Amino acid sequence: MVHSSLKRLAVKLSKICNDLRLLSSGPRAGLNEINLA
């Protein structure tokens, strides 16, 4: 039970990180909607 919860959390965090990477990429390479400090 704990293992499946941790796995789901890891998958969600991975998706969030990928979305942030896409949104914060350069003006020619991505959407550039947010800036990560």
UniProtKB/TrEMBL annotation:
The keyword Lyase applies. The lineage of its organism: Bacteria, Pseudomonadati, Pseudomonadota, Gammaproteobacteria, Enterobacterales. Its EC number is 4.3.1.1. This is Aspartate ammonia-lyase. It holds the Pfam family Lyase_1. InterPro entries: Aspartate_Ammonia-Lyase, Fumarate_lyase_N, L-Aspartase-like. PANTHER family: ASPARTATE AMMONIA-LYASE. Keywords: Lyase. Coiled coil: none annotated. GO terms for molecular function: aspartate ammonia-lyase activity. Residues 2-37 form the Fumarate lyase N-terminal domain. One of its GO terms (biological process) is aspartate metabolic process. It is an enzyme of class 4 (lyase). GO terms for cellular component: cytosol.
